[in-house]
Amino acid sequence: MARLKVGLVVCMTLVACGAPGPLDSLEPGERGRVVRVVDGDTIVLDTGQSVRLVGIEAPSGGYRDRAPQPYHTESKRMMEDMVLGREVQLHYGGLTRDRYDRALAHAQTVDALGPTFWLNAEMVKRGGARVRVYPDTAAANAPLLKFERDARREEIGLWRAVEYRIPYASDLPKAYEGFQLVRGQVSGMRGAEGFGAVCDLSLQNSALRLQIQTAAASLCQEALGLGVLARGYVRGDEMEISHPLNFELVEAPTN
């Protein structure tokens, strides 16, 4: 009987505590109430602190002569419906501020006004943002990739829009500039020409080169001949791959 009681106590303790979550290993940061949503990846707290959610890229709004990106309004509203007026806890896993003094963080709701949301993950799950990983804020980003794959498969949120369909690198317009996901097959590797890069990977039937940065150096040898899904900023026929999570091995294209 005593052994049974001990077992029940252990079981209840495990249930109460739960398994460690992705945010548990991060450094707790500030708390605050969300008083403004800038867009689907940026919020403002009642302390005046702006917060840029890491690991995700939501459609941006218009600025000066630049038009809003497709699905910006829907993404912003998605975030507003989820978090406006609620208290959130910030979590840091690397660099804590950018050049605009925005907090670079994961954020989680911590009040009793609604469900507990890990905002970074929830925006990806709902198709309000794509995954974008930077080396200095990559902690706890890996689970976001599965959430994005699920959202893409179900065509949730922005994945229903033609503008966010993932092209083959060979179909990417030559003058394209911006953050993008592309598919392709790695056809060659050469020494890099750009600062901080260790190699350039070429893609079959495409002028686009994947510029592999130091943090992702292992990809230079691992990816030859394989199908890939790459994500990064495209400029002048180059896409910078700054972290291994921005580069997934997939089935090679058949065309």
UniProtKB/TrEMBL annotation:
Species this chain originates from: hydrothermal vent metagenome
GO molecular function, one term: endonuclease activity
Protein name per its UniProtKB record: Nuclease, putative
Pfam families (alphabetical): SNase
Record key words, sorted: Endonuclease, Hydrolase, Nuclease
Entry keyword rRNA-binding: no
All residue ranges annotated as the TNase-like domain in the record: 28-161
